[in-house]
Specification:
Layout (H helix, E strand, L loop, with lengths): L1 E2 L5 H10 L6 E4 L11 H19 L4 E2 L3 H14 L4 E2 L5 H6 L5 E6 L1 H4 L2 H10 L4 E6 L2 H10 L6 H12 L9 E4 L8 H11 L7 E3 L2 H11 L12 E4 L10 H6 L6 E2 L1
Parallel strand pairs: 1-2, 2-9, 3-4, 5-6, 5-7, 7-8, 9-10
Helix pairs in contact: 1-10, 2-3, 8-9
This protein binds D-glutamic acid (DGL).
Length: about 260
Amino acid sequence: MFDTGVGGLTVYDAVRVQMPDAPVIFAADYAGMPYGTKTEPQVAARVAGLLGRMCERYQPRLACIACNTASTIALGMVREVLEIPIVGTVPAIKPAAMDNHSTVIGLLGTQATIRQQYVDDLERDFANGKTLLRHAAPDLVDEAENKLRGKPVNRDVLKAALEGLENQEKGLWLDSIVLGCTHFPLLKDDLMDVAVFDMGLSPDLRFVDGSEGIARRIADRLDGQEFAKSGPNRFVVTGTVEVTKGLEATLSERGFGTPEPF
Ligand code: DGL
């Protein structure tokens, strides 16, 4: 599994529930973080290069790009060159729109994700007749990274992200918000709390993310295969492992060994 940082752990957690015996190598590209501010060619080159090297080194049966920015930009490209199944993570607009009650859907993602053609296509195919409001909330990535390091979440940053949707035309009618960056579900409870108590939004507001669906898809693609887990899962990082300082507890709770350099 691959992300820039701990965001992909939201997908990893769902995979562990469904496939507790599957051995996982989780790669965090901290040396390239954030992807959200990069250009499409920069993200594509990085993802294709790194994922290619990781596949050669670790020989996985399947790779999951647990990052919306990387998936919406580079999924098609890496599928063409790598010979294993690749499961991506794209904004959960389809499940959000399938709820008949939803009419105004918000999308929070990185700057790069919300401008992708991939998102335009999801909107056209699944949210036809509904309103999709998009807002880039890159600061939530840092909040999620901090939260998993035991630091307090800054409610003003969360509020600003939600206001970015609420202040748009039809924003007052928002009924669901798609968390279109894998870091954001780590803040789901905090976002709900800020929405209801600091902003007076309805407690019926739904926050939607794709992690369970992605885990189901991974389980489907590996259906029938046997696993023999021989130790803790591995957490590998690009750049220096120092960046994982503060994550020890959350990683060991999640069944990882000591972080290793890639
Ligand atoms: N977790 C990544 C995503 O889902 C984004 C974080 C970043 O900008 O690096 O888009």
